[in-house]
Write a structure and sequence with these properties.
The chain is mostly helical and 279 residues long. The chain is 70% helix and 2% strand. Helix 5 runs parallel beside helix 8, helix 7 runs parallel beside helix 9 and helix 10 packs across helix 11. The longest helix has 29 residues. The protein starts with a helix and ends in a 13-residue tail after the last helix.
């Protein structure tokens, strides 16, 4: 053994040799797994913008769906391998900002919102301003989510999650094109749905997160059948089925809030408050 090798061995804790050093290197390699999924989600979001610039909005919507799937897998992989880190959380937020903030705003702008300049010259800047409002709301949503981690009920999101808002916009474009609707014809509705999606992200409306479904060791048979049924329906007519599904989920927040408000109005004075954990 050379002098340098002896010096390396003396710096290790007792009982550790080359095996311990190799184990630590392998451990660092495991930490790359969640980042690879996050990088894949970032690539999918970037590719969605490239596809939109080329006029292929169907492919852009599919890319946003791929980003959604990979974004859900990176956190699950990190928990399964016990490799959560602050770096991974920050990297995930930056990836989400591109895939679910900038990309959908660009998609809906290129397809429809840019045609505000065709209505009147004074409204020419309205399209990109609305797209910017959506992107800014996505950034605020992600920042609030990062600061509230560990302090809110994991069963519910505070406000609409940015991946769901992105799916609503991207698949709204494909859904409209599938029906033969042009971006010029739907410019007013595009403005409304973009603003609504952005404002719902920064709202306090509760949205079910579905995080408690896979937390138990045994998944209910009904949940499995529901997922299989949804996948089968989605393959029959993807733009209509997937857009309708996310549109119903987006509406579930205001509907849940109105239902709870109605229960409060009907409750008699002096009755105990609700204890269902919903914010």
């Amino acid at each position: 053994m050379t002098e340098n090798e002896r010096r390396d061995d003396t710096t290790m804790p007792p009982g550790e040799g080359w095996r311990g050093r190799f184990g630590r290197k392998r451990r660092r390699g495991i930490y790359l797994l969640p980042s690879l999924f996050t990088t894949g989600a970032l690539f999918a979001g970037f590719y969605a913008m490239v596809a939109a610039l080329q006029g292929d909005f169907a492919l852009a919507a599919i890319a946003i769906l791929v980003a959604l799937i990979l974004d859900g897998l990176d956190g699950r992989v990190a928990r399964l391998t016990n490799t959560q880190s602050e770096f991974g959380a920050e990297y995930d937020s930056l990836s989400d900002m591109v895939s679910f903030g900038v990309a959908p705003a660009l998609i809906v702008y290129l397809w429809s919102l840019q045609h505000f300049s065709d209505i009147t010259l004074a409204w020419g800047h309205l399209g990109w301003l609305v797209a910017f409002v959506y992107a800014a709301c996505a950034a605020l949503r992600l920042a609030r989510f990062n600061t509230n981690v560990g302090t809110t009920d994991k069963r519910f999101f505070q406000g609409l999650a940015s991946p769901s808002a992105a799916m609503l916009l991207a698949w709204y474009v494909w859904f409209s094109r599938d029906l033969g609707i042009t971006g010029e014809d739907a410019v007013i509705f595009s403005l409304v749905i973009t603003l609504v999606a952005g404002l719902l992200m920064v709202s306090n409306l509760p949205y079910y997160s579905f995080k408690d479904i896979g937390s138990a060791r045994r998944v209910p048979l009904f949940s499995i059948l529901a997922v299989v049924g949804a996948l089968v329906l989605a393959t029959l007519d993807p733009p209509k089925v997937i857009f309708t599904g996310f549109a119903l989920y987006v509406l579930s927040g205001p509907a849940w809030w109105l239902w709870r408000r109605g229960r409060r109005w009907q409750r008699r004075p002096g009755s105990p408050p609700d204890d269902d954990g919903v914010p």
